[in-house]
Amino acid sequence: MKAAWFENFGSPEDVLQVGEQPKPITEEGQVLVKLVTSGVNPSDVKKRAGSFPNLLDGGLVIPHSDGAGVIEAVGNGVSPSRIGERVWIYQAQYGRRQGTAAEYVTLDAQRVIKLPHNTDFDVGACLGIPAMTSHRCVHADGDINGQTLLITGGAGRVGYYAIQWAVMAGAEVITTASNSSDRDLCLALGAKAVVNHREEDWGQQVLVATSGKKVDRVIDVEFGANLPQILGCIAPNGVIATYSSTQVKTPSLPFLDMMYMDLTLRMVIVYAMPESAKQAAIEAISIALEQEKLEHRVTHVVPLEKISKAHELIETGGFGGCVVVSMESSE
Predict the structure, then answer these.
(1) SMART domains under this entry (predicted)?
(2) Nearest by Cα to 165 from 280, 302, 42
(3) 102 close to 272: Cβ distance less than 8 angstroms
(4) Hey, which residues does 2 pair with through a beta bridge?
């Protein structure tokens, strides 16, 4: 099968290879998926760059955890009725070396979810990390109906879905964005107001948008950099759910300030979410897809042979939306 892989850590252009690899064998409890698309997330490029030093101890790695395609075969213990099913995939390259940047992947059947016929494979490749992370951030700490949520980076991969989950659940949403087009996207999704996180006092601008009422919860994309502003606009007993801190990798916590406010700090990553939370997210995603209640933002689709470009896009940033690798050749 055609696949992409790396055998050393480094830059995308230096270490990512595309060629032939053995087609995986379907074992008990697994399904074999013929992939159409593969989603690229920050965790994928961090792994390739060496964030998990022991990752290559067992040999080469086919990257990416998210993807979408069609079940071609099933192992013992899996109903043959699943053959031919359109599916989306999550956690393909978690705790193992075989991911979705290939024509085929085998995976435990519970990680392979039915994709409704009204949903494109491009979208299917964006559900695992972005949609599931956002659902967990929004719903992990109880009912939000009637609460005010601040979602930083509302036009980004996770923030875009978080706005929608929050609005569906009855929350009032304030979000941040850095340009007019992203601002318009957030408002179209149901945000009440959008502030510019490039401005030094954006936390105070949140309070202006809420007429002085502090927010109940924060869904945050840059914890270390954003924390000082968040502390100025979050209410006592509030919750900060964060899933990234790229700019400030080792944040310093003002412990007493946060303790006196009785704040809850939740860190979210799909791989470590409780199974009950994963299933709750999957059920919500399935219903929303079937009822066409979710908007999606796929901004880049590149062929497998140009996978290094996909990784470079994630590393460079500067845009919202998902990056998808297509198994179809550009030739």
Answers:
(1) PKS_ER
(2) 280
(3) no
(4) 20
For residue 49, the 8-state DSSP code is H
Produce one character per residue of 180-200: b if its CB has 16 or more CB atoms within 10 Å, e if not.
eebbebbbebbbbbbbebeee
| Cα–Cα distance measured from residue 154 to residue 175, given in angstroms and rounded to the nearest whole number | 6
Residue 186: predicted pLDDT: 97
Beta-bridge partners for 151: 175, 219
DSSP assignment of 203-238, as one string? HHHHHHHTTTPPEEEEEES-HHHHHHHHHTTEEEEE
Say which amino acid occupies 45: V
Q: Please give the domain boundaries of the chain with CATH numbers for all domains.
A: 2-126+296-326 (3.90.180.10), 135-271 (3.90.180.10)
Chain centroid offset of residue 63 CA = 15
Distance of CA 171 to the CA centre of its chain: 21
DSSP 8-state code for residue 6: B
**Rounded Cα gap, residues 145 and 295, in angstroms:** 21
If the chain, 331 residues long, is cut into consecutive pieces of 10 residues, what is the mean pLDDT of each piece? 98 98 98 98 96 93 98 98 98 96 98 98 97 98 98 96 98 96 96 96 97 98 98 98 96 97 98 97 98 96 98 92 89 51
Q: What is the largest CA-CA distance in the chain?
A: 61
Q: Is there a contact between 277 and 271 (Cβ–Cβ < 8 Å)?
A: no
| Token reading at 252 | 């310093």
Task: Give the pLDDT of residue 330.
Answer: 58
Which residue, 112, 127, 120, is CA-closest to 26? 112
pLDDT at 58: 87
Question: Are 89 and 111 contacting, i.e. CB atoms less than 8 angstroms apart?
Answer: yes
